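Input sequence (89 aa), recorded before submission:
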Amino acid sequence: MMGGKGYYRGSNILISGTAGTGKTSVSAHFANAACKRGERCLYFAFEEAPSQITRNMRSIGIDLEPWMKQGLLDIYAVRPLFTGWKCIL
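Predicted structure, C-alpha cell format:
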C-alpha cells in the first residue's frame, strides 16, 4: 500500500470512507503510534466527540486518554452540520 516505507513524518493524512469502514480505528492507530514515539498529534474528527472516540477505541484495545493527559494528543472535534459546512455530492 505504501511501498513499505509509510508516510513522510509530519504529513497530514486524510482518511475518508463510508460509515463502518474503520476510519476512526485506522486514525486512532496512527495517533497512538505517534504518541508512543513521544510525538505530538492533533486529531481532527468531524462526526464523533472526543469522549466517544476514546471510549470506542478503548473497546478495541487502544487507550488514547493517557496521551491526552500527557499533552501529546489533542482531539479537535467539530460537526460540519453545526457550522453550516455543506457537502455536495
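Checked by second reader. Residues 30 and 68 are 14 Å apart (CA to CA).
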